[in-house]
Amino acid sequence: MVAKKSELAERLESVRGRIARACAKAKRDPADVTLVAVTKNAMPEQIREAIQLGVTDLGESRVQVLAQRGAQINEYYQRRVQLGDLPAMPKIRWHMIGHLQRNKVKQILPIVSIIHSVDSLRLAEELEVQLAKGERKLPVMLQVNASEEKSKFGVAVGAAVHLAEQIDTMPQLQLVGLMTMAPLTEDREDARSAFRRTR
Q: How far is it, in rounded angstroms, from Cα 172 to Cα 168?
């Protein structure tokens, strides 16, 4: 008798299938795509199951939750690897995907592997200062408000290149890409428009 897959395993398989189909259509290698599982409303056991299913890139949008969950999950993962319960896998990489205030930078730096939401020179400068203390480099993404919604964070499209050039002069920050949030709408063309502007 074949064991029934969990709902999370089925959903993960579906998402990976969609990624593979999109990559085939775009003539890209699916191995070049990083799937980040956002833990926003997940229970700890769901996060642990995702890790066991091979998801090692985890995203969180709130600093306090990232600091708490990151420490707990990283400890769990290390303990399971040491006991031999989990195969040796790449290290868990925590992604800060939400708005980040300068006064919260110190809290997340010990845990985070990449920040998706650098949206101002002042934030980039604070990251640079704190990272220099530990002689650490960190990949970051520039958040662009391509939909021009007042409720969203991000640098304006017209100012993005200038801010990217400034970040590029900071030795501790590695600008690896752009991030944007499309409008929450049923109209796919509205979403595509935001991604085109970011591109």
A: 9
